[in-house]
Fold this sequence. Notes:
By secondary structure, the protein is mainly alpha-helical. It has one domain (7-84). The protein is built from four helices and three strands; from the N terminus they run E-H-H-E-E-H-H. It has helices at residues 10-17, 21-29, 52-61, 65-87; strands at residues 7-9, 39-41, 44-48. It has a three-stranded antiparallel β-sheet. A hairpin with a 2-residue loop joins strand 2 (39-41) and strand 3 (44-48). The protein is rod-shaped. The protein starts with 6 loop residues before the first strand and ends in a 19-residue tail after the last helix.
Amino acid sequence: MRFPKDLVPQKAVAADLCVSLVTLWRARQSGIPGFPEPVIIRNMIFWRKDEVQQLEDALMKFEGRGRFEADRTRAKRAVVIERELSKVKRTKRAQRKNDESQLHLF
């Protein structure tokens, strides 16, 4: 199948920018402002030739795997905590009776 000439495959972009495919994926998922959206055709990922420079500039803002994984883990924990808190029903403490039977102990 032939693709338009203005599209560059993800593998070629990764090789040109000296990053791995996984780094491109992480950067795309991290929500960097100004990161161009890829063109996806039949589960193949392409970028427009005129957006490669913009992609490189956005990758310079990417803080790397450690930051990405920390943000992802934090988001997962927040979802779990929110789910658990919604399940918990707070019960009121039972009021103690004014029982004077043990007052002689004090």
